[in-house]
Structure formats: structure tokens, C-alpha cells
Amino acid sequence: MNFTGNVHAILQLGYAAAGQTTLTPAAGVDLRDHEGCLFLITWGTITAGTTTSAVVYQSSDDGVLDAYTDLVGASVIVTDADSDLLTTIEVVQPSKRYLKCVVARDVENAELVSVVALVYGGSRFPLSAVADSVLQQALVQTPAEVVAP
User: Fold this and answer.
1) Taking the domain 11-124, which CATH number applies?
2) Which of 10, 66, 74, 101 is least crowded, fewest Cβ atoms below 10 Å from its Cβ?
3) pTM of the predicted model as reported, rounded to 2 decimal places
4) Strand blocks (E) in the chain
């Protein structure tokens, strides 16, 4: 088994400098026929006194008729002591099909590097969102070493 063929990475939010209060992805991550999703939230510089959070929300139809609602326990809070670190939120077997990770910055002094969703445990591949957000993928099995000239 390999990770690349069984787990799909989706860039849900890209870099955002301090200055916006809430960062919301345009679309949710579709988990149809998948077991779960691990969100990797990478933080940049967080200014002293700032408290920032990332919360996962779910919807049955990507917010068309069923508004996104947050999930109990599916959140992290970071402070200025957490600059340049990574936090994760994992949702296993959500009760609805779509998930999105929203970042709320209370005083606009937190830099977000990215939010990446790792979708796993699926019976349906590939995911269309992967093609939209991943520039390149490389899978190497038992590679040979490069020989220096």
C-alpha cells in the first residue's frame, strides 16, 4: 500500500496574511464514500495577544440548502505562542457528506500558511477536488540513488 494512492490531499485554504477576520473556503471537501478527513492547519506569525481558532463545519449539500454547522470537539485554538506551528483536526465518519475548515482570527493578527485536507478511507477515486488544488504528485517505489558525475 502507498499513501498517495489511498489518501488525497486537497488545498482548502492558501496563504493569508494578517488582515482578514474570518477565512472561509469557497467549497467543502466532499467525503462521499470516504471514512474521514484530517485537516492540517499551518500557522505563520501570530502577534502577541491574539487568539485564533480553526473549526470544522459540516453540511449534507455543501451549504446549498443545508447550512454548514460546526461539529462538537472539531476545533483548535492557537495563541501567539503557537507561531510557525502545525495543528490538526481529524473528523472520522462524519454524519454529513461535506466538511470545511474555517479559520477565525479575533484581532486580525494571525498569519495562515495553509489548510490542507487529507481525505482517506475511500472507495471512490480519484476525487475531482484533488485535480483542482494539487499541482504535482510523485510516487516512487524502491527508488535507485542518483549517481553523482
Assistant:
1) 2.60.120.1110
2) 66
3) 0.87
4) 7-13, 22-23, 29-30, 36-46, 51-59, 69-79, 86-92, 98-105, 110-120
Distances, alpha carbon 89 to alpha carbons 23, 93, 106, 122, in Å: 16, 13, 20, 18
Residue 16: how many CB atoms within 10 A of its CB? Answer: 17
The domain locations on the chain are 11-124
Beta carbons within 8 Å of 13's beta carbon, 6+ residues apart: 23, 25, 101, 103, 112, 114, 115
Which of 92, 140, 122 shows the shortest CA–CA distance to 9? 122
